[in-house]
Amino acid sequence: MNFASNAHPSPKSSPNLGLKHRNTFGFEASAELAYEITAPDQIPAVMTQIAEKKLPWRVLGGGSNVILPTVLPGATLLMNIAGQEIISSDTNSTLIAVGGGVNWHNFVAWALENNLPGLENLALIPGTVGAAPIQNIGAYGVEIGEYIDSVDAYDANSHAFVTLTNEECCFAYRDSYFKKNPQRFIVTKVVFRLPKQWQARIHYVDLAKQFSEQSSPSPEEIFLAVCKIRTHKLPDPKVIGNAGSFFQNPIVPNEQYETLLHEYPGLASYPDATGKRKLAAGWLIDQCGFKGQRMGNVGVYENQALVLVNHGNGTAQDILGLAKCIQEKVKKEFGVHLEIEPNIL
């Protein structure tokens, strides 16, 4: 574990470090100056150096939710803090501390192997644990904010380490306090609270179909089903570059939903926690004829219209150009604006 405050040597900076294998789109990109962070106590010294040089900076984890330009100016902190451990357990729940650099899917699998269910719906989401609370990742009817107890981070404003409770994280759909305050927090550790009373959550359409003849699947069966569904719908970034779901599912007032439903009876949607309706962005894009279409070196994945792909030699400019075309067509057809999910660096 790297959570202890034992002194670790300050990481050396690496100039012009290639990042093609550090972003799942597979864009040719490089960091002007990169620092590998393997322990929290390395961060203050690195941030002091960055401040002295007046450099712009950002944190890069698995690169699964970012769109990288050809050159990232300034400093890039590569988040590689490892480690995961059970820190307490009572009759109601189990607390697990996990390093910000841990691979998300590997952690979900580890939790199940240790008889700690709850996160199985979030299997195969690419990226790191440290990025999970920022985006409040979610899939198949579950959001990670439901299971986070607290988040440890370095606050670049106060130059100190802080711990934010679940409430202070202000989790919302694909949103959080961290996302609302960019360039402020560097997430080093996430503490998850998994309840002992587990319930299968299979109400989401794809999972409901998968278990139509099985009312009480095990966590492991749900995990495998989610992996199967995601593997079918989403391309492997190692084979074809992508960042998973490229657009957020838009949330609209009930009045707008009813109007759209009247005009488009097949409209795919889900009830939102706020009482509004969440529309399936992939369905909207598919209806506009983009599924499987290609624009130069980039395109829309043939099995899932919500996924934009790099066919090879594509750039951030190419993918954003395609995204703009999609946004304009969906807005014109449905009167709905699609928000880009990955962070544009």
Polypeptide structure, described:
The chain has 345 residues and is an alpha+beta fold. It folds into 3 domains: 13-79, Uridine Diphospho-n-acetylenolpyruvylglucosamine Reductase, domain 2 (2-Layer Sandwich); 84-195, 2-Layer Sandwich (Uridine Diphospho-n-acetylenolpyruvylglucosamine Reductase, domain 3); 241-344, UDP-N-acetylenolpyruvoylglucosamine reductase, C-terminal domain (Uridine Diphospho-n-acetylenolpyruvylglucosamine Reductase, domain 1, Alpha-Beta Complex). It contains 9 helices and 20 strands. It has helices spanning 43-52, 104-113, 132-135, 177-180, 205-210, 219-233, 254-263, 281-287, 316-334, and strands spanning 13-18, 30-37, 57-60, 66-67, 71-79, 84-89, 93-99, 138-139, 142-143, 148-155, 160-165, 185-195, 241-245, 251-252, 269-271, 277-279, 294-295, 298-300, 307-310, 343-344. The strands form 6 sheets. The chain has a 5-stranded antiparallel sheet with strand order 6-7-12-10-11, with no helix packed on it. Strands 1-2-5-3 form a 4-stranded mixed sheet, covered by helices on one side. A hairpin with a 6-residue loop joins β18 (298-300) and β19 (307-310). The longest helix has 19 residues, at 316-334. It is globular. The model has no long low-confidence stretch (mean pLDDT 93).
